[in-house]
Q: What sequence folds into this?
């Protein structure tokens, strides 16, 4: 779940996922500093209490304040901040993990921030929280590899048929476009593709919630690597699972 508020040039963003148990504040801190590099494929790296893109200091935080079940950094500057102020907080609250930015002033105009930096922040933060939550307990009965292959076969046949009907001489490009839009829409709206309906399975986040558009995009991009490696790496990266419906 994500909540976004804009007021007086300041941004407040809260991203949360379900969690099975309490997580220590020290683990939330260490996991974030470790995961940010992996989730951005090394583009963003943590050095001390700052985030960098190459030599550029993206965001500068003050010293982390760690409590039993939370960590909080004050925002002190960096090229992505118009001025110092606000804070970034990650906490374990009841049965949820929550990451929130409050009082942050982005350097970008708010309309531009809303369509560029904000979507990236949301997907990276959600993936981080889901990875901290972990894949256990499983949010349902996992679908078998054979059932997943049968569902994929149905989906490929459906997309190929549509591309054959409307593709003309550009069948391959049309097929790729149809397949991308079809899977993104199905995974984010209900978790069920046509193949999933036929075989009785659906895609969910590891906390049991519906995948976000960002998760669905990560899952789709990583899907070829899963086929090559014959492992569900796309689900590991996207924080998703395929369960029996």
A:
């Amino acid at each position: 779940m994500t909540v976004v508020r804009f007021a007086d040039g300041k941004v407040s963003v809260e991203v949360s996922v379900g969690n099975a148990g309490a997580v220590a504040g020290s683990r939330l801190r260490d996991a974030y500093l470790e995961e940010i590099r992996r989730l951005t494929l090394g583009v963003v790296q943590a050095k001390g209490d700052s985030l960098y893109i190459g030599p550029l200091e993206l965001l500068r935080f003050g010293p982390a304040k760690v409590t039993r079940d939370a960590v909080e950094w004050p925002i002190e500057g960096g090229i992505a901040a118009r001025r110092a102020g606000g804070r970034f907080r990650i906490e374990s609250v009841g049965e949820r993990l929550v990451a929130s930015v409050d009082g942050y002033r982005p350097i970008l105009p708010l309309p531009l921030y809303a369509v560029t930096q904000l979507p990236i922040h949301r997907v990276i933060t959600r993936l981080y929280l889901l990875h901290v939550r972990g894949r256990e307990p499983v949010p349902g009965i996992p679908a078998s590899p054979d059932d997943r292959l049968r569902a994929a076969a149905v989906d490929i046949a459906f997309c190929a048929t549509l591309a054959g009907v409307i593709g003309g001489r550009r069948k391959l490009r049309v097929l790729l476009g149809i397949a991308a839009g079809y899977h993104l829409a199905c995974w984010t709206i209900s978790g069920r593709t046509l193949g999933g309906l036929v075989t009785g399975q659906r895609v969910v986040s590891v906390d049991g919630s519906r995948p976000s558009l960002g998760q669905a995009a990560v899952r789709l991009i990583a899907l070829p690597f899963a086929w090559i490696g014959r492992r569900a790496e796309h689900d590991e990266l996207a924080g998703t699972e395929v369960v029996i419906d």
